[in-house]
Amino acid sequence: MKGSVGDSGNKQDGSLFGDLSFVVTAAHELKAPLALVRQLSLALEADNISLADREKMIRQIVLTSERALRLTTDLSRSSRLEDSLFDVEPLNPHQICEDVAHELAPLYAARGREIRVATRHRSHLVVANRDLLRRIMLSFGDNALHYAESDTPVELRAVACEGGSKIRLGVRDYGPAVPVDIWRRLESQLGTGTQALHARPGSSGLGLYVAGQFAAAMHGKIGATRHRDGATFFVDLTASTQLSLL
Amino acid sequence: MTKTPMILVVEDDVWLAEQHVRTLRAAGFQAEHVPHALAAIDSVDTKHPAAILLDVFLSGPNAFTLLHELQSHSDLAAIPVILCTNSAEDIAGEDLEAYGITQMLDKTTMKPTDLVAAIKKVLP
């Protein structure tokens, strides 16, 4: 393991949608799922499609639309962060991982991939907002789907770090190593820039940006670790002082 | 008997690639899919495609790495390549001329029939 990055999800200047480049990036990132939905829909008009293919294509349209909608919902949620009050509470990080894996399982299965939660470790509870933390992990999970090799599962895990004062929830994928130059660009942009990471084109630079915003709103930070065989994207949040119920 | 032309689809979106392959096979071509440029380089050597349908932003090396590789071998440089991208508006035609690319499809506006038409246009 090398190239560990602990980047912060810095707060922006509050003009999220006043920033034209942000809008352009958002539009660009939505192009891919919309173009796919359009292509599949056009293809469904043809007469020579088998029933099995037709059902498969409809399922793909639904899952692609849901993924795009997750991104749009995250964008609208992030634009309201500064105005809204949200509760943080002690949460079971392992349960969050289980919930996210369960939610993404149909999308992964349709892509012939597997997502699972790594072996459970005893850890403290994490202080977080359930919805924001769930969205961060969903975003990481969405990204990993497009990068991981098909024969290796994507793993979600929660572990204590920094002497137990923090809880790290991460999504580990296994795939080709990200080239160093691309990784450096990622390091400089993680959570603060909105450019898509073109070496991982299925991944969402915008999704990572929004995840950084959500993490910062909970006084946490996102980061990433480059491995020889993939990457881990993680969020570090404060551990609860409440006794673990795990 | 004329051999059915084989089209290599280089596309990292598996579902879109499946759709391209379905469309090409329905039009009477052979079609095979690879998800990235490195696999495409291997496949060009073993499958000898009649044409390549190439996405631009791929996992790992992008389309231009593959184009450079093709151009560096005289026999491979002759394989027609059609770019298929969401970023057509950002790619200047003159940038493609150096690679001998004459056809570019915009994923956001193309129809399945456009794909078949573009392939037919570049095949001898």
Give the key terms:
heterodimer, A: 246 residues, alpha+beta, Heat Shock Protein 90, Helix Hairpins, 2 domains, six-stranded mixed β-sheet, 6 helices, 8 strands, globular, disordered N terminus, B: 124 residues, alpha/beta, Rossmann fold, five-stranded parallel β-sheet, 19% strand
What would your notes on this structure say?
The complex is a heterodimer of chains A (246) and B (124). Chain A contains six helices and eight strands; from the N terminus they run βααβαββαββααββ. Chain A has 246 residues and is an alpha+beta fold. The two termini of chain A are 28 Å apart. With 124 residues, chain B is α/β, with parallel strands linked by helices. Chain B has one domain: Response regulator (Rossmann fold), CATH 3.40.50.2300. In chain B, 43% of the residues lie in helices and 19% in strands. Chain B contains six helices and five strands. In chain B, strand 4, helix 5 (93-97) and strand 5 form a beta-alpha-beta unit. Chain A binds chain B through residues 28, 31-32, 34-36, 38-40, 42-43, 46, 48-49, 53, 57, 60, 64, 111-112, 146-147, 175-176, 179, 198-202, and chain B through 12-16, 19, 22-23, 26, 36, 57-60, 62, 86-87, 107-108, 110-112.
Strand-helix topology:
The complex is a heterodimer of chains A (246) and B (124).
Chain A (H helix, E strand, L loop, with lengths): L1 E4 L14 H25 L6 H29 L9 E3 L1 H18 L4 E3 L8 E3 L1 H16 L8 E8 L4 E9 L5 H10 L15 H13 L3 E7 L2 E9 L8
Parallel strand pairs in A: 3-5
Antiparallel strand pairs in A: 1-7, 2-4, 5-6, 6-8, 7-8
Helix pairs in contact in A: 1-2, 2-6, 3-4, 4-6
Chain B lengths: L5 E5 L3 H13 L3 E5 L2 H11 L3 E4 L8 H9 L2 H4 L3 E5 L7 H5 L5 E4 L5 H11 L2
Parallel strand pairs in B: 1-2, 1-3, 3-4, 4-5
Helix pairs in contact in B: 2-3
